[in-house]
Write a structure and sequence with these properties.
By secondary structure, the protein is α/β, with parallel strands linked by helices. The protein is 45% helix and 20% strand.
Length: 291
């Protein structure tokens, strides 16, 4: 059998997991024609059909299904090699890829990264604002700031802070509609909700207020647009106090009920934690974030 290129297996796995060439292209950044060529080359080398075409995209064949597990093992092995090599790097100069939620990336990280650049000009930063969880063990990022405690046992994690939250409305909007004095009056006011996510609904349920999606007259899943909707006077909404208190156009509704805090965890793959460059960025973020 002809030697099998790892690149072909990586493309096969991307298409198998995404369910179509177009979805795999969006996920990997590899063009659809290139992915198609990789699949054909892999099938020719392995001498089996890996996919059949269906109306929704492609379907993995029985032979392809049998190859998914070893392909994932190859992907993990390649990622492990890269992590070990990065962890053994002795120099501090180089690139660190950080992923964080869009809100944290906008409201918290810029001054921290500016300080890092001033103190360590040899370190370059790739900041990936994302509300999805990148897999650190597969090398998708070097460090991650997440709003929950990581569940993967192989990750190194440190809790940085519990961020207080509050209910805010536009000051001009509250001047017009009035300020609630009771919880009952508060719940009669317009709240901004989410479209497909259920975080706000679950947060209200935890406070004893069971509502459905239709309770919210305006909805969005984009956290930055959510803030803009509050500022524009579309209704009340929950914000990090760091953001809401700093905006003179907003007013906090105090004394009626308390929202739970939002935890922030700094995480990394264990091999990267031994890298001087990663350790420097880790230590600076860990020391600067609570402030």
């Amino acid at each position: 059998m002809e030697k099998l290129d790892w690149t072909l297996i990586r493309s096969f796995l991307a298409v198998a997991e995404a369910g179509s060439l177009s979805a795999a292209a969006r996920a990997t950044g590899i063009s659809q024609p290139t992915l198609g060529r990789h699949i054909r080359q892999a099938e020719a080398t392995l001498r089996v059909a890996l996919f059949t075409r269906v109306a929704q995209g492609v379907q993995v064949t029985e032979a392809g299904q049998a190859m998914i597990a070893p392909a994932r093992a190859m992907r993990q092995a390649a990622a492990d090699l890269a992590l070990v090599a990065a962890g053994r790097s002795s120099g501090i100069a180089g690139t660190v890829r950080i992923t964080a939620s869009r809100v944290v990336s906008q409201a918290f990280l810029p001054p921290i990264l500016a300080r890092l650049r001033a103190e360590e000009p040899g370190i370059q930063i790739d900041l990936v604002p994302s509300d999805t969880s990148e897999n650190l063990l597969l090398g998708e990022a070097d460090l991650a700031l997440r709003m929950y405690r990581p569940t993967q046992l192989d990750l190194v994690a440190q809790k940085l802070a519990d961020l207080p939250m509050g209910v805010y409305g536009a000051r001009s909007w509250l001047d017009r509609v009035g300020r609630p004095e009771t919880v009952e009056a508060l719940l009669q006011m317009d709240f901004i909700g989410q479209d497909r996510n259920t975080q706000v609904i679950r947060a209200m349920a935890a406070l004893g207020q069971v509502v459905t999606r239709s309770y919210f007259p305006v909805r969005t899943d984009d956290p930055l647009v959510y803030q803009d909707l509050i500022r524009a006077g579309c209704g009340l909404g929950g914000l990090l106090c760091r953001i809401g208190d700093a905006d003179p156009a907003l007013e906090k509704i105090d004394g009626l009920f308390t929202l739970p805090t939002l935890p922030v965890w700094l995480t990394a793959a264990p091999a990267l934690r031994q890298s001087p460059r990663l350790r420097r960025v880790w230590d600076l973020i860990a020391s600067a974030f609570p402030a």
